[in-house]
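Subject: for your reference before the review

Hello V.,

The reviewers asked for a structural picture of the protein, and I figured it would be easier to keep everything in one thread rather than splitting it across files. Below is the amino acid sequence we used in the manuscript, unchanged from the supplementary table.
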Amino acid sequence: MKIPAAKLVVTSAAVICLVCLAACSDSQQTGESIGEEQERPVLALIMKSLANEFFVTMADGARTHQTSHDDEYQLIVNGIKNEIDLSQQVALIDQMIASGVDAIVIAPADSKAIVPALARASAAGIVIVNIDNRLDGEILKEYGLKAPFVGPDNFRGAEVVGQYLAAQLDQGQEVAILEGVPTAYNSQRRTAGFNKAMDDSGLIVVSQQSAQWDQTSAVVITSAILVQYPDLAAILCANDNMALGAVAAVMQAGKSDEIQIIGFDNISAVQNLIREKSVLATVDQHADLLAVYGIEYALAAISSDVELADKATPVDLVTIDDLD
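And here is what came back from the structure prediction:
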C-alpha cells in the first residue's frame, strides 16, 4: 500500500492540533521536533479508559516499542475517560482523520456503534487495525469496512479460568457473573466462556449482570447479589476492574472466606489480591504486547497491498502458582 504524498509531511500546526485533544484523553506524539519534516508513517493508538490499568499498560508497551523503532514510525496515543465514553472515542477518530494519520489501531468501546466513524477513516485512506475488542462482523460488512482483528480468544480465556474456579467448587453451588458492556464483543465472549465452564461443571449461574467494566458499579451490583443470594459461592468477573469491586463488596459483607472471585486482564492490583488469596485467578492477555501486535500489523498493511487476516494473540491463566 503506497502512502499518499499528503500524509508524508506532518507540519507544526498538525502537531499542535494533536496536542490539543480533549481533556479526557491522554495523547502523546513520539517523533522529531515540531516543524521538522517527518517522512515516517504516523500511527494513532486509540484505546478505552486510561483509568483502567490494563490500558495504561497497553499504552506503555506501545510507547516502548515506538522508542525502539523510532526510525520506522511515529505514534500518537489516545484514551477516553471511561469504558463507555463512545462519543469521545468517535471524536478522537475524527481528529485523527483531520490530522491525516496513516493508520489507526483501535480498542473500540463498542463493537457496533464505532464502525461508522472507522468507515470514515478508511474512506480517507487510513489503515484500520482492530485490537482487544472485536468489531461486529455484520456491521463491518454493512459499511464495507475491512479491519483485521488482532487479539486473544476471549471465549477460551474465560472458559479456562472458569474451569479452574469450578475445580475448587462442588456441583450445584451458586455463582454469579459480572459482565462488561453488553454490546462489546469481548464481554459477550467472556460471558459465554464463563457460562460454558459453569454448565459443564454442574454449577448454577443465579445472576448475570453488567457492571459496565467499572469497579464502582461492581461494588454496588455485587452487594445486591450477596443479599439476594446468601449461599453464593463464587463471582466470575469479565475484567479485573470489576473483580476489584467484587472483592470490596465481599469484604464489606464479611464473606471473604466464603466466596471465590476470578477476573480477567492480570493487572497488578489483582496479582496482589491473588497472592493474598482474595482473588482465585485471572487471565493474562498480555496488555503490554497487545497494542504492539496491532502496530506491527498496521505497519505491514501500510507497506504492502496484501490483505491481512485476523491474528490470534496469547491468552493465559494466572493463579498464585504463576506469581513470584
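For the response letter, the relevant points are probably these. The chain has two domains: 5-152+287-311, 154-284. The domain at 5-152+287-311 is CATH 3.40.50.2300 (Rossmann fold).

Happy to draft the paragraph if you're swamped.

O.
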